[in-house]
Design a protein that fits this description.
alpha/beta; disordered N terminus; 2 domains; Aminopeptidase
């Protein structure tokens, strides 16, 4: 809509001025208009905090009914993500004709939501930016709040995926192709990501950037995050290098006993050798909202969420631009 209305407004100005200007002056005005329109269409790419809040509060709303696969609430969440992909201008992936990668698991019809931002010089090399859009649904009975809204787990991650998709689509620096994927049924055992992994050529996938539980301040303090499987590849060290001077720091996973590297969707790709890791911020050892009905948008820190997405964008830029290639993962 902007491309139509904005130029029309400017053309009306040209029409009024043209009544008093020479042909030469009109030509100059037309050139100036084109420059203004071009500038408007190429606004600097930013992680918009307003959009971050919009995505989070929509995906974690009661209307989504906890986003359990196979439910009406999950369908609403899926449609929201699809509409955002379309607005941003993402393409469909491989042989898919829509953003949905449909399949069935234990009698439940479900789908991963995949959008493609095609690369330039290295378009056959893929980076995946992911999060899971499912959660636990609703309690079958009981009084009071019965909805597992899953704001931090993992509407926060999906918010990051959508924000990064828009950021990179506007920035236009991705030499490699980027797949933005919202996996389904992570809570049922990494079902969606495992299904996805079975249908790809893992050798073409350079890195996996997975986002989960990124809405609360970690015990390492403000403007910090931690990465699972830090020692499994040099992915984390590349991120640390790119974050130097930014005021933001990335640390190794402080909870090794929980084996988190194997408990999120990054694991499905890591098992195929892809340097795929999960960014997180939440102090899960003391978080009282994890897998509770209290995991609502109001409990999250919007500054932490926004700053973390910005840090992921900066930290992964050299990989996106094709300058750095993380080492492959070797599972023990």
């Amino acid at each position: 809509m902007k491309k139509i209305l904005y130029p029309l407004a400017l053309v009306s100005v040209v029409f009024l001025v043209s009544c008093k200007q020479t042909k030469s002056s009109n030509n100059q005005l037309t050139m100036n208009i084109e420059e203004v329109v071009e500038k408007n269409e190429n606004k600097e790419a930013v992680i918009d905090s307003v959009m971050v809040k919009k995505h989070l509060y929509t995906l974690a709303s009661d209307e989504m009914e906890g986003r359990k696969p196979g439910t009406e609430g999950m369908e609403k969440a899926t449609q929201y993500i699809e509409n955002e992909y379309k607005r941003i201008g993402l393409k469909t992936f491989d042989t898919l004709t829509t953003y949905r990668q449909n399949f069935e698991y234990k009698g439940i019809k479900m789908s991963n939501i995949i959008g493609l931002l095609e690369g330039k010089s290295k378009k056959d090399e893929f980076i995946i930016v992911s999060a899971h859009h499912d959660h636990l649904g609703m309690k079958e009975d009981g009084e009071g709040d019965r909805i597992f809204n899953g704001a931090n787990d993992d509407a926060s991650g999906v918010t990051g995926v959508l924000s990064l998709a828009e950021y990179y689509a506007k920035k236009g620096v991705n030499e490699r192709s980027i797949l933005f994927v919202c996996f389904t049924a992570e809570e049922m055992g990494l079902v969606g990501s495992e299904y996805f992994g079975k249908g790809i050529d893992a050798d073409k996938f350079v890195a996996g950037i997975n986002l989960e539980l990124i809405g609360k301040e970690p015990k390492t303090g403000p403007k910090t995050a931690w990465l699972t499987g830090f020692d499994k590849s040099d992915f984390g060290r590349i991120i640390q290098k790119n974050l130097e001077g930014s005021g933001y720091q990335l640390f190794p996973d402080p909870y090794p006993k929980f084996q988190l590297f194997l408990r999120s969707d990054n694991a499905s790709l890591a098992r195929l050798g892809v340097p795929s890791h999960t960014f997180s911020t939440t102090p899960i050892d003391i978080d009282t909202d994890y897998h509770k009905v209290t995991d609502e948008a109001e409990t999250l820190n919007m500054t932490v969420l926004t700053e973390t997405v910005k840090a992921v964008a900066r930290g992964t830029q050299s990989i996106i631009e094709g300058k750095d290639t993380p080492t492959r993962v070797k599972m023990e």
